[in-house]
TrEMBL record:
InterPro entries in alphabetical order: EIF1AD, NA-bd_OB-fold, RNA-binding_domain_S1_IF1, TIF_eIF-1A
SMART domains: eIF1a
Extent of Polar residues compositional bias: 111-129
Renumbered residue ranges of the record's region Disordered: 109-129
The protein, known as: S1-like domain-containing protein
Keyword Secreted assigned: no
Pfam families associated with the record: eIF-1a
Gene Ontology cellular-component terms listed: nucleus
Length: 129
């Protein structure tokens, strides 16, 4: 394993996403739009496209509904200039990191309801009649 991927895994294992830096925000992954372009939704419910860097592609797999930390410093300028990709994923959040951010005040109010609540209601048997 190369040093870059080893350091990437080590940083994620340490839980480095306890606090957000300036210009970073939490977004929810919606769909894959290409090889390294994903559709995300921010805390205000606005959908946009984000770049999923190559350093994450063979190290982390994300599912629909997963959360990522996105560097959106030039988001408004990119959208005004006509670029479709507005931000870049800087970190993939794991379950423990999501829980830590929910307990702190950094979690967006749109994401307060977890997707697991809806799936628990639909766990009945699929018997006709």
């Amino acid at each position: 394993m190369k040093a870059g991927r080893k350091n990437l895994r080590r940083a994620c294992d340490e839980g480095a996403a306890a606090a957000l830096a300036d210009g970073e925000s939490i977004m929810q992954f919606l769909t894959l739009r290409g090889s390294n372009v994903i559709e995300v939704m921010d805390g205000e419910g606005v959908k946009s496209l984000a770049l999923f860097p190559a350093k994450f592609q063979k190290s982390f797999w994300i599912k629909s509904g997963s959360f990522v930390v996105v560097d959106a410093t030039g988001r408004d300028q990119a959208l005004e200039s006509g670029s479709k990709i507005a931000c870049v994923v800087s970190q993939v959040l794991f379950h423990e990191q999501v829980r830590a951010l929910q307990k702190s005040g950094d979690w967006p109010t749109v994401f307060k309801s977890t997707p697991n609540e809806g799936s628990e209601m639909n766990t009945g048997t699929n018997c006709p009649g």
